[in-house]
Amino acid sequence: EQDFMDDVFIPFPLTTKRLPPQPYKGTDPEWLEFVRIAKDKDLQTKLKQNLANAVLQAAKKNPVLTMRIGGEVRIRRSWMDVDYPYMAPPEYEASGIKFTDEYIEWTRQPIESFNAKLLDRVLWPTPMASSFWALGTAVIGHKTAEIARYFGIVTSNPDVQASGAGASSPGPLPSSHNPQIQKALDRVRGSSTRNPGEVRDPSSMTLNTPAPTGGKPSAAAPSKVPASTGNPQPAGERYFGEERVKSAVSAGFSPWQVFMKQFGKSWKPILPEPPRGSIAFSGLVELESTKCWIVVDVFGWYDPKTKQFNNVMMRLRRLQDKLQSPLR
């Protein structure tokens, strides 16, 4: 019995192209499904409840939030909108070498959106580069201040200055959606409708969509990162190499804090484009515990084929204690 090898395609860097998204037609099965779901109010209510329950379960599994609000949490109320996009999600293609049982050729073929974005992240590691730049700037500033203080030029304590630059205090609660969720909403609502049954030809609609940027990851929610099989992580480290990196920074904790703060600002998880025919759900979910009320921004794509939500983003919008005591 002869074994046949599956075709293998190896994409080459700098050849990835983001294809323009194509509009749905009124006869497409995806658009007909939009019309069916838009008329089914009971199904919409059920889907909104499922997304709200996903927020509730995420809150219960968050150890930091649970410690703050207590273990008994329930859904108090929720507000959600449903948007049906005119356009299908964009597709990606790349050039590379294709290996088959009969031949080897240079070709161009579609690739998964996650692989395209991951390749772009590897070639252009902007979050890591900007974080190291912030770290280097903090270390140089720290050492310069120490030298200046040694010669009597600076009398203030540089450690205090560095700590002040890297420290973060709780700011005021946002009065609108989280910036990442708002960005996703603006992109969706610029090319979507809430009444697909009233649109006969979605491909003829005038769309107001932002210009696509090839290979750039969209704002998305935290995704599960697969565990590494090699290079075992030493005990006590939150991630591999933490102790070695920290020990290399002789200026103390403040520059490291600057690095982590910048990395947290610039890092966005890589999420694939939603499946074709997905519907956007967005809104607010209010949770109640024995100690406080919590309002969470939520955004996600519902796939009617798999009947599951994808690319769900959740951001804490407001937390209010039921009992407040004076600070002094």
What is the gyration radius calculated from CA atoms? 25 Å
Strand percentage lies at: 15-25%
The oligomeric state of the chains shown is: single chain
Could you name the ranges where pLDDT drops below 50 across 5 or more consecutive residues? 155-174, 209-234, 237-242, 248-253
Q: Averaged pLDDT, please?
A: 74
Largest sheet: 5 strands, antiparallel
Q: What helical percentage do the residues reach? A: 25-40%
- Find the structural class using helix and strand composition: alpha+beta
Number of strand segments: 9
| Total number of distinct structural domains | 1
N-C termini distance: 83 Å
Total helix count? 9
| Bulk shape | flat
If strands are numbered along the chain, what order do they take across the biggest sheet?
A: 6-3-7-8-9
SSE order: EEHHHEEEHHHHEHHEEE
